[in-house]
Amino acid sequence: MEDRTHELLFRNLQEVFGEGDAVRRRAAIKELYTLDCMIYTPMGVILGHDALDKFSGELRATHPHFVYTPHSKPQALHNAGRIAWGSGPRGDAPEYTGWDVIIARDGKIAALYVFLDSDPS
Questions:
Q1: Do 48 and 111 touch, CB atoms closer than 8 A?
Q2: Beta bridge partners of 44
Q3: Is the pTM higher than 0.90?
Q4: What pLDDT shows up at residue 2?
Q5: Helix 48-62 crosses helix 22-32 at what angle (to 10 degrees)?
Q6: Exposed, middle or buried, 34 (CB in 10 Å: 0-12/13-18/19+)?
Q7: Which among 17, 56, 59, 69 is placed 20 to 30 Å from 43, CA to CA?
Q8: Residue ranges per domain, the chain?
Q9: d(C-alpha 36, C-alpha 27), whole Å
Q10: 54 to each of 49, 57, 76, how far by Cα in Å?
């Protein structure tokens, strides 16, 4: 399960929140998240694939040239995992940083908690 948790953490950064193509992002959400997933962000709580797709697409549109870069090795503990990351233009210092904490169920993300270290605006 540890390897799958690490994979979920990395792929979520790149294929959901870092993906600009709506079709690829939606396919990743279907593969990586449970149908009843809950995403907890400073902006509010998101429930399910449709809401996650809308949120991540709108967020991506605000900074389409940003990349998400892991800033730590992922850690897994039982059915949970966490990773630190930064986001900004490729090759530049991140404009904001944070932590993702996931709870996995049946090999998919059932809950994602997004902690921001600095304001992304």
A1: no
A2: 41
A3: yes
A4: 78
A5: 140
A6: middle
A7: 69
A8: 2-116
A9: 16
A10: 9, 5, 28
C-alpha closest to that of 13 among 77, 93, 100:
100
- Two structure tokens written together for 81: 């995992």
Residue 16 vs residues 12, 28, 55, 63, 68: alpha-carbon distances, Å: 5, 6, 10, 14, 10
State phi, psi for 42 to the nearest 5 degrees. -60, -25
Structure tokens at 5: 């948790």
Location of structure tokens 């993906």: 19
- Separation of alpha carbons 118 and 52, rounded Å: 22
**pLDDT (tens digit per residue) in 39-85:** 999 999 999 999 999 999 999 999 999 999 999 999 999 999 999 99
Q: Which of 57, 62, 71 is nearest to 20 (CA)?
A: 57
User: 92 pairs with which residues across the strands?
Assistant: none
